[in-house]
Write a structure and sequence with these properties.
Keywords: Membrane, Transmembrane, Transmembrane helix. This is DUF4179 domain-containing protein. By secondary structure, this protein is mainly β. The chain is built from six helices and 29 strands. Helices cover 11% and strands 45% of the residues. Strand 12 (245-254) and strand 13 (259-265) form a beta hairpin. The longest helix is centred in the first third of the chain and has 10 residues, at 2-11. The relative contact order is 0.13. The model is unreliable at 1-84 (pLDDT under 50).
Length: 445
């Protein structure tokens, strides 16, 4: 593997020579049709609650299958074609057009640091960073070809607790050879981007004879001069009304890796707005940049305030830009609570007949959704808040969830703490496949 790595490092200078050529080429409009959903996983930010969407394990498997059929734009293909190992890294971000553009525009910081623990080599391949987030690309290699199954246990910055972390990790099988993924870091308010990421990784590794937890600590430099001052701010400050619900779009901040849009919902609205199905930025050529659909999709400041994250068009520099949408998932505020009778295994209250309780077994609530549309198969994974309470008013926390699709019917699993409860339990809906509709068309510039 050392020859592979030496060749990769030797090829990195070619990027500079290719830069002048690639700067002159644009990706044809319509490439967004090939974007597909990646793994959705995120950890809470300390300053404000993270508004996330976690894909089911089936989505993870779908991603693995889809990698083989990814179509690169001409620019990306030319950019990575002669660089061993980089094509696989591009596959990791193909769901995010903004990160692709960042790579095309020489925004990747090559790193190439590696260390070996317990026969597994961890390599930090590169970094894409700005003031909004840091995307770290890594490769794990099974150098001793051990029969083992590994799972990511811990990722942390050992000396910086003001930066939150999300990661993508592909499940391994016995005899695996190589795994690639990303870690994403989000600075909390006032934290800033450090000069170095002192990263600690721990894997659960199960071999034929023992269970071990190999650990790596690597210091990854971040070239802050590369992105200093790279952002644009637009004051939208416009209010729209959709089926009686008032929505105000505030400031939009454009970074190279993502776009942040502040959204405020009128407290007098009678519906809780969960998410926009098709909110997007569209330029004068009809090219769209949608909301980020993997990892951290937005942040909840309060019930009536959010920051939504979009794929970035920073390197496109559009002359005209519009914010558009037509469909929003929402539910009446007086229907947000679901009461579950544990003794009789039935729902005492629910929003409508769409939601069913299929089973309660071994501390797991199995919910079903009738007539689930294809577009809802991922969105309803996070239908309930992690916090719930029993009849005594005591609050508990669900730390796990899952989902399955059987004969086209969606079922989600909600894991309860092992406690003696006073029935009924009260769960709070955090997403639901009911909608309001109306054309949103706001000119930003």
């Amino acid at each position: 593997m050392s020859d592979f790595r030496d060749e990769q490092e030797r090829q990195w200078p070619q990027l500079e020579a290719m830069k002048e050529y690639t700067d002159e080429i644009l990706i044809p409009p319509g490439i967004d049709a090939s974007i597909w959903n990646g793994i959705r996983a995120a950890r809470p930010r300390r300053r404000r609650k993270i508004y996330t969407r976690l894909a089911a394990y089936t989505a993870c498997l779908l991603l693995l299958v889809s990698v083989a059929s990814v179509r690169f734009s001409p620019v990306v293909a030319a950019y990575v074609g002669e660089i061993p190992g980089l094509r696989a890294l591009v596959e990791l971000i193909h769901y995010d057009k903004g990160l692709e553009l960042a790579l095309e525009n020489d925004f990747m910081q090559p790193v190439g640091l590696s260390a070996v623990q317990d026969g597994i080599r961890m390599t930090i391949d590169g970094v894409i960073a700005d003031d909004s987030r840091i995307v770290v690309f890594y490769t794990l290699e099974n150098e001793e070809k051990q029969k083992s199954v590994i799972n990511l246990k811990t990722v942390e910055l050992v000396d910086n607790k003001d930066i939150s972390i999300a990661s993508s990790f592909y499940p391994s099988e016995e005899g695996w050879k190589s795994i690639q993924g990303t870690f994403e870091f989000y600075p909390n308010q006032g934290a800033g981007i450090p000069d170095n990421l002192n990263m600690r990784f721990v894997l659960d590794k199960v071999t034929e004879t023992a269970t071990t937890s190999p650990e790596w600590q690597l210091t990854v430099p971040v070239d802050k001069a590369k992105f200093e001052g790279l952002k644009e701010i637009h004051d939208i400050n416009k209010t729209v009304t959709v089926e009686g619900q008032k929505i105000t779009f505030g400031t939009m901040t454009v970074y190279p890796t993502r776009i942040e849009v502040e959204v405020n919902y009128d407290p007098e609205n009678n519906k809780r707005i969960f998410y926009f199905d098709d909110l997007r930025l569209e330029d004068e050529n009809g090219e769209t940049f949608g909301t980020i659909n993997n990892g951290v999709t937005g942040s909840n400041i309060s019930d009536d305030q959010q920051v939504l994250y979009f794929q970035s068009n920073y390197f496109r520099k559009p002359q005209q830009l519009y914010l558009r949408a037509s469909s929003i998932r929402a539910l009446d505020k007086d229907k947000l609570e679901v009461k579950v009778d544990l003794e009789h295994k039935k729902l005492l209250t629910r929003p409508d007949d769409l939601l069913t309780l299929n089973e309660f077994d071994q501390g797991i609530l199995f919910f079903g959704f009738k007539d689930t549309e294809l577009k809802d198969e991922n969105t309803i994974n996070g239908s309930f808040s992690n916090d719930y309470r029993d009849a005594s008013g005591k609050t508990f926390h669900s730390s796990r969830g899952g989902s399955t699709i059987t004969n086209g019917v969606k079922e989600i699993q909600y894991y309860l703490e092992q406690m003696d409860y006073q029935s009924p339990l009260t769960l709070t809906i955090s997403d639901y496949p009911t909608r309001i509709h109306g054309d949103i068309d706001i000119k930003i510039k």
